[in-house]
Design goal:
3-stranded antiparallel sheet, 6 helices
Amino acid sequence: MNERDFLTPYARAAVEKQLPRPVNRQFERIYQVKHREGKKFYDAGGGRLITVGTDHPSWGEFLSGFGSHRELQALVASGIPPAAAIKMATINGARALNVATTLGTIEPGKLADLFVITGNPLTDIRNTHNVRLVMKSGEIYDSAALFASVKGKLWPTGEADESW
């Protein structure tokens, strides 16, 4: 899915003027260190302390909602098993926010906001991108319809609304 498809034509043109941007060598070095050290930390027993919550640098070409999927891929690429990476994105995050008694796992009595995917993320973590259904507050939504409803609508439509 091309994330820029969700931008208004005005915003998309502004983003694309900045692309392709050169690889920032410092960010590349940081990524390589995090890649190695994150796996070492996991292997040393720190897996319960790792969470997902990316602050990926972007000029608008990457949208925050898709960042967690990329982060899961990076964790698995570093050698962390897919099941452990999924826990990092769910229960570990809930523990870190001190809300694990109400969310972070699927069980009776907990909030049940979740998404259903096509494919097995344990065999290919990229399958988390294949969201088919979303459940929010007990309501089920078709993800294709949700995506279609915002396609071309994110960010300013022109100079007049850039200030917001």
